[in-house]
Amino acid sequence: MPDKTAPPPAGSGSATLADSAPATGPAAPARPSPPVRDGGARRRGARRHRWPVVVPFFAFLAVCFGLPAGTMVYGAFTVVDSASGDSRFSTENVSGSLSGAYATGLTGSVELSLVTALLATVIGTLIAQAVVSSPRPALRGVVVSASGVLANFSGAPLAFAFIATLGTTGTVTQLFHLDRTGFSLYSFTGLVLAYLYFMIPLMVVTVLPALDGLRSQWQEAAASCGATRGQYWRHVGIPVLTPSLLGGAVLMFGTAFASHATAAVMVGSSQPLITIQIANALNGNVLVGQENLALAMSLNMVVIALLVMAVQIPLQRRSTRWLG
Asked: Is the model's pTM score more than 0.90?
């Protein structure tokens, strides 16, 4: 007798469930996920959003630097006919600014800048090293504060201070009878002393971070290897500081080369300097209508300043990489 409770044939249950399941229709297509932007795309988008921020800066550069520079270059290569008033392109102004008395003034400014830069670099570095090596923190604070003030004390006030102190009737001149020794403040030597007054403090402030970057472990390692203090400075300290010292010297040269008010008030036209000659040409103190010649002399100064910057920037980067 057959068993009535036998299970149904294989596959019949699945078919029954499938037949009893409600029809749902075709499957809905999957929703695509948004594309993921890579890091480069995000950075490019951030740059596009940031560039409007620097528009005022470039506008400032264009108005305050680009426009004067373009005017200077245009005037340096333009000659105006005094009779007709017509202007024409020529290199007469540039050639005239590099010959005669103007060449002497350019040479005098370069010589003054070289001498003061060398002296300020040596003396300022020695003072800064003495401050770094001192065990008294108060001395560093006093020297840094005084250097920051004296580095900005230049121009006409400095000239008047030196005239009242070391001039012909100055206090120190009369007290120590310096006039009998042949010393004159209104000479090349007097200009060097006046320039060093604000350039030495500037060099102290400039070279102090480089001296702080010399790690004490280097000197201890050299001493443990039997090196003397002189050998340490000759083989380790000075080579590491060379980019910073050269960069500071170049900065001192540029500072002295661009200074005008101190020399103009103290010596006037008695010393041939390019800055004073430019002022005289612009004011018409020597010849009338020499404004474009003054622009040509200014162009010479700008070229020298660009050369100075081209030397200083790589030195500054190397110093930062070594002492950073």
From this structure: no
